[in-house]
Specification:
Blueprint lengths: L14 H24 L5 H8 L2 H24 L3 H22 L1
Length: 103
């Protein structure tokens, strides 16, 4: 990615882009987790129906949220602070969903 200097505007430096990437990245990681660990034997539909137990979801969501740290680092390294704010919002949304499922 190309960094921009002070005063230049990056078209991807928006809260919505950060929020979207904060939701899409964990979804991609979840699909990669299924593909690497369960693909030949368990279908995606079976994976979602079997794995949706509160104690299992807590582990999977926390595993999938870790790559958000890398994306947040990339945003802040490239001075995309608005996108970083959106990423924080997406992580807070994941935390709220996890807490609702846990209760």
């Amino acid at each position: 990615m190309e960094t921009h200097k002070r005063g230049q505007i990056n078209k991807y430096d928006t809260v919505w882009f950060g929020m979207l990437s904060g939701i899409v990245v964990p979804a991609i990681v979840l699909l990669l987790f299924w593909y690497v660990k369960f693909y030949p034997t368990v279908s995606l539909e079976t994976f979602f129906t079997v794995q949706f137990k509160p104690e299992v979801i807590m582990k999977i969501v926390s595993l999938c949220a870790l790559p958000d740290l890398l994306v947040f680092y990339i945003f802040t390294r490239n001075n995309m602070y608005r996108a970083g704010k959106g990423m924080i919002g997406a992580v807070i949304l994941l935390i709220i969903i996890t807490l609702i499922i846990k209760l």
